[in-house]
């Protein structure tokens, strides 16, 4: 199923040219390439965020009984992320401000 020969590829290319026209195909390919780059960068950012959210590992150190044990470090509490509704409200406010400033310039 995944093995496409040259004949099948030519048929697919011919159908695409008939459907979209020769002038639109390069534009569509550029748009697809941009979309793929954006998608890859966003997924990479998500992976980095997931990696950054992991708790740091603490190495155990053997100490002699005469030394007091230090108190374990408290994990840092990150501020909770705003909800989707809150983010949407903030974006709408920003859009309204931008529209107002654009209207003043015109």
- Strand content of the residues, in percent? under 5%
Distance between the termini: 57 Å
Number of strands: 0
- The helix content is 55-70%
Can you give the mean pLDDT? 77
Number of helices: 3
Overall morphology: flat
Profile the largest sheet. none
Radius of gyration over C-alpha positions, nearest whole angstrom: 27 Å
Weakly predicted, low-confidence segments: none
Query: SSE string, helix = H, strand = E?
Result: HHH
Structural class: mainly alpha
Protein name: Sec-independent protein translocase protein TatA
Biased composition (Basic and acidic residues): 42-56, 86-106
Membrane topology: Single-pass membrane protein
Biased composition (Low complexity): 57-66
What can be said about this structure in brief?
It comes from Nonomuraea guangzhouensis. With 106 residues, the protein is mainly α.
Fold and architecture overview:
The protein has 106 residues and is mostly helical. It has three helices and no strands. The N and C termini lie far apart (57 Å).
Topology:
Layout: H1 6-20, H2 24-53, H3 84-105
Main location: membrane
Membrane topology: Single-pass membrane protein
Keywords: Cell membrane, Membrane, Protein transport, Translocation, Transmembrane, Transmembrane helix, Transport
List keywords for this structure.
106 residues, mainly alpha, 63% helix, 0% strand, TatA/E, transmembrane helix, TatA/B/E, protein transport, Sec-independent protein translocase protein TatA
């Amino acid at each position: 199923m995944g093995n496409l020969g040259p004949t099948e590829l030519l048929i697919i290319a011919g159908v695409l040219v008939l459907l979209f026209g020769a002038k639109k195909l390069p534009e569509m390919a550029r748009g697809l390439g941009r979309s793929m780059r954006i998608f890859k960068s966003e997924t990479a950012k998500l992976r980095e965020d997931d990696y950054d959210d992991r708790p740091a590992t603490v190495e155990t150190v053997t100490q002699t009984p005469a030394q007091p044990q230090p108190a374990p470090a408290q994990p840092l509490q990150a501020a909770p992320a705003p909800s989707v509704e809150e983010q949407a409200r903030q974006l709408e406010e920003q859009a309204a401000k931008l529209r107002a400033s654009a209207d003043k310039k015109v």
